[in-house]
Amino acid sequence: MSAPAQPKTGLKTVELEGMTPDEREYVRWIEGITPAVYRRERFLPDPAGRYTAPGCSINGCERVSSSSSLRLCATHRNKFKAQGRPFAEFVLLPDESRKIHNKGHGGDSARGIIDLRVCSSPVLRAEMAFVISRKGTGDYGAPFVPATLNAFIRRIAESRLRSLRELDDEPTRVSSLDLVAKPNRAFVMYAREFSAWLQIAGGDLGVRRRLGRVRGGSHRWSKGQHISLPWLRDIVQRWVSYRLATQAASPEHVGGQESCVAQFAEWATTTQGLVRPEGLTRELLLAWLAEVNTTPGKYDGIQSGAWRGKRVGAVAAMIQFAKMEGTDRIPANAMYLPRELPARDQPKPRFLEPRVIDTLRKPENLLRIADPSHRTAILIMMQVGLRAGHTCALPFDCLIDLNRAGESNRWALSFIDTKSDMTVTVPVEPHVASAIREQQVRAKQLSAGFGKPQPEFLFPNPRAYLTKRLAQEPLNKIIKAWVKDLDVREHSGELVHVTAHRFRHTFATEMLAKGVSMVKPQHVV
């Protein structure tokens, strides 16, 4: 991790005088887990954009940039938008043309400075320095907004708190921070997050924590802290940490398994009276299997075999881990026998009927999708069979022109298939290529508005903090609303259940019907 640039005068260790022996030991522990470069009382903007956004890119401007996508402070950003010039021209304008006619440059918050000197408690200053160091790793979400964080620090200082640990211990102190009486969402989030980071650093996993990033760049959060039985909560937390540490599965998969175990724990304690490890009997596991097998599905009948197998299998894996770790109070026969776990259902056709896909592909129906970027993404999935994730991550220069002189109907789409880790090139029809070229123009215009002359992705989203591109999660919601607007129904009268992945199955089915090979070594589908 690159160390943020800081003034030499800012480096110092918090004073240990005037503290109790426990407080002195606590501060020494915090300083031991805080990198030396972060043991400060005053932080300048982070050039790497981790604990704060970097400084404004205009020379001589002392303000912090207002976003990571356009490195301009709020006042220069407004000036840039008002002038309507390309970003490269605006940056090179004479100072007088960029003058913002503001009185000064504002205080510490406008300049991106985080000041801990208002905290009279050295314990609190050490805790906040540790908190900023966590943000500095880049693994704890978006950067701080200095104005909000400085306001939180001032509110904490006014309340005479000596440590963030007191937020949980004394509800009256929390009320004095207006975290209850006059809720401030950012302050409530800070209070919970910072306290949890300190607990996790001390080895206590009984708090809400980030398990890691999932697709799209968002974070997966833990569920195990809601388990009421301390011994079971400890087993689940150690199991989750083991799975993540050994990289046995992705944070998304591990988080899903933990959620299934948390559901089992709630059911076992509230309906089966589970209290001690000895209660984790085979009879209890069979009762959970029966409960899962009879749970109604979201649409009709019981849940799918794959979903039921996931819920039961997660509990079986957790108990097996507990036995391996030496939890000998769990009965030896607490297990599922082979073939007892729910099997996957026989696969059903997942392609869309010709009448349905033909209706969706009609140009006049596609125009009913309001956003042209979403419209192009859905067109690519329908016509080329790409996964939603691959579509959203298409590079800006994904379109390959195969036309010779006088031709205009030979185009191909190139992308990286993350499952095979190969670059794949597939032919596309002229109208799809035309839609992609139009999207490239929109992508350039959008990126230019945020100071980037050349976009990285075909579907950029500069406001997406981590991925900088369109997320795949909203696409199914857009497709569902679109199908409802078109009123496309099954023969039974119900709305057709259309997802992005069903477009892929439909495309593959159409290719097989046309005689395209799916047999090695000539396989194409």
Give a verbal description of the structure.
The protein is mainly α and about 525 residues long. Helix content is about 45%, strand content about 5%. The chain has 19 helices and seven strands. Strand 6 (about 410-415) and strand 7 (about 420-430) form a beta hairpin. The longest helix is centred in the middle third of the chain and has 21 residues, at about 250-270. It is flat, with a radius of gyration of 28 Å. The two termini are about 45 Å apart.
How are the SSEs placed, and which strands pair?
Layout: H1 21-33, E1 42-43, H2 74-83, H3 87-92, E2 114-115, H4 122-135, H5 146-158, H6 166-169, H7 171-176, H8 185-201, E3 210-213, E4 219-221, H9 230-245, H10 251-271, H11 282-293, H12 305-324, H13 354-361, H14 363-366, H15 372-384, H16 388-392, E5 399-401, E6 411-417, E7 422-428, H17 430-449, H18 473-486, H19 500-513
Antiparallel strand pairs: 1-2, 3-4, 5-6, 6-7
Helix pairs in contact: 1-4, 9-10, 10-12, 11-12, 15-17, 15-19
